[in-house]
Amino acid sequence: MKNDTFIKDAFNGLELSQEKKERIWDGIETQISAESRNKKKTGKTLGRFAGTAAAVFAVFFMLGVCSYAATGGKIADVFLKRTSKEAEEDIIKNTLNISQRMEVYAPELYVCNEDYFVFAHLRGMVIYDRKKDCVASLVDLQEIDCNNFDTESRFTRIVEEKDRTLVIFNEQNDRVDKVYYKCDLTDLENPLLTQRKIGETLEALDAKKLHNNWQKYKKAHYTDTFNSVPQSLTKFLNNNMYSENSFIWKAKDGSRKQSALIVRHIKENPEDVYYSLFTLDKNTKKHTIVKLNIEVTVDNTEGIINKDKLPKFVYTGNNAKVEAICKYMCSNLNYEHERTNTVYIPIPLIYKTIEKKNKLVILVNLSSTVLTRNGNVLQDIGGGFKESRLYLKKTDSGYRVVKAELAGDGAKLIRDIERFTKDCPDVKNKFFSDKRYSKYRTMFKKMLKMYLKENNLGIVYYKDYGGDKEKIANWK
Fold first, then answer.
1. Are 434 and 330 in a shared domain?
2. Do 52 and 35 meet the contact criterion of CB atoms below 8 Å apart?
3. Positive or negative, the Cα torsion across 406, 408, 414, 416?
4. Which residues are within 8 A (CB) of 89 and not within 5 positions of it... i.e. 6 or more apart?
5. Alpha-carbon distance 259 to 473, whole Å?
6. The pTM is what?
7. Containing domain of residue 273, as a range?
8. CA separation, residue 51 to residues 46, 199, 325 (Å)
9. 264 shares a domain with 227
10. Per-residue model confidence (pLDDT) at position 13
11. pLDDT digits (tens, 9 = 90+) for 334-376
């Protein structure tokens, strides 16, 4: 076919090995043959394939190590675009930086054998070559919106098929998204990532099958780490951060193993943090702990790339009282100011304003949150409430906080709030009201959208610990 020759010639200009060019072209020829046979039987045109073949010209490398597409001799529905070098550095930093976030567990393994293992986090997926003892490649999971880990209702699933192919998909309430992905690990340094649509490919999988495959995979390969190790190892686990669930796999000699990631700290130097692969033989109960050749960055002010520094929050609204309170909070209550990859967001919840001559007395809950950037996501890593009585003085430009009474902790909390509200008892219950969180969320969204509008950071999502990603553009 004339068109076939044209498409094949286009591959000669791509910077691929001859083997890879032939592999992709074999897949196209296979599909052309199938489409031709189908045309003879049904009389349908090849218009749909022509659109698919045109996507050949969008073949690029992602991260310099992945994302041209062909799996099992089949052409992909969509060829994924190349990711910049800057994005690659961002993936490496954020995937391997454990201590910048409030983690409880280390990432879980999705594949493990004697040759390689795979783990993933909010920023990317890491493929580790055990024979070469190094990270073989990374996949940008944010690029394909398959980074729903440590979430509440929407989850990313990663399942390995027998032919060293990963199936990556999202599901919510047991319902699978129409788009899923396949990642061929035949070459660990060049994983082939393709996009598929349920019911529209030659290897069409229905949503129910994807969900059931995950359930079977989970049952066959996962066990609770802490409850499945000998008692002699529980103290070791308690002293380190480990994967909540271990991955069970079969070695070439037939023995059954279970492996998990361990994040370890050197007692003499708390900033010396590193990954290890923990493996337990299910039969002999003997275990190994192998330090991985992965650099884990530590969350301090040294060695942090300047481009990762988040701008400070500045109130730009038209409420002079809120502006004065925000300035006070950022200057006096921001205990995270030395951490350059975080931003402190003040969220003042005003309950009562009392005017006294040229001064204001404000009963307010000085709530706040601290966020860190992870690609296009802002992660919540902490925050709190501080019940307060503030005194503001009128100035030429607005107001200034001249005195602050902050409630203490424990038994002092109720005592101080009663003192704050002695002249306005109707406000007392507002400090403890169940509606406080709703008020907090409303003010938080307003402050965060203000911050992002001013700084144009390219942030798309917000994520609280243990919660689903929230698309900020959808906030009302």
1. yes
2. no
3. negative
4. 305
5. 40
6. 0.77
7. 223-282
8. 9, 17, 57
9. yes
10. 45
11. 876 556 678 999 999 999 999 887 789 999 999 999 998 888 9
